[in-house]
């Protein structure tokens, strides 16, 4: 019981820390009930995503197909939380909200995904647990947040500027999938040899946080200054 609580804390706390960071950047705070709802639905989105990924692995042995399929499934799952809940909500009243809610959905998804990884029976030693914990907390949360943040940026440009809707329809989704697929392919290719490449570790741990910083500086500020039209619900 104690070990489960420790794993639960390790899995959830990093996402909550990043959640608080992003919420502090919102000039017009979203309702706590809405934030909690999107975070929890982001967590729940892991379940159907995992089932679809298991099914994909059962019907295909091609590594590229499995990799791209898993990324497509996960990015779609995080997006559908926003599509089904946020798009219908009156709380969606400015462009930055859509990007923020995409990030919240991603943080919820990453939190439960991390917990499931830590509960894996394959992690039988303390060293393997530490390795997976460090890798996922230092990179996986960044990847989920960054890919969903990019998608959220283009979704906001679509939703609040109907004239540009065709221009941005698929660009955000494609960029999110490309980033996520690159990360997954990078990790899978190196496999157990990952920790032997110190320069790759340093590069990955540096590039992903830098990407989030640039995302915040560019996208959040641009959406806050964007002239927009609120669509009819």
Key descriptive features of the protein:
single chain, 233 residues, mainly alpha, 0% strand
Task: Explain how this protein is built.
The protein is mainly alpha-helical. The protein has one domain. It is built from nine helices and no strands. The longest helix has 34 residues, at 126-159. The protein is globular, with a radius of gyration of 18 Å. The N and C termini lie far apart (46 Å). Residues 194-198 have low confidence and may be disordered.
The arrangement of helices and strands along the chain is: HHHHHHHHH
Oligomerization category of the chains in this entry: single chain
Rg calc: 18 Å
Q: Alpha-carbon distance between the termini?
A: 46 Å
Short structural summary:
The protein has 233 residues and is mainly α. The protein has helices at 2-24, 32-44, 46-59, 63-86, 95-118, 126-159, 165-168, 171-190, 198-225. The longest helix has 34 residues, at 126-159.
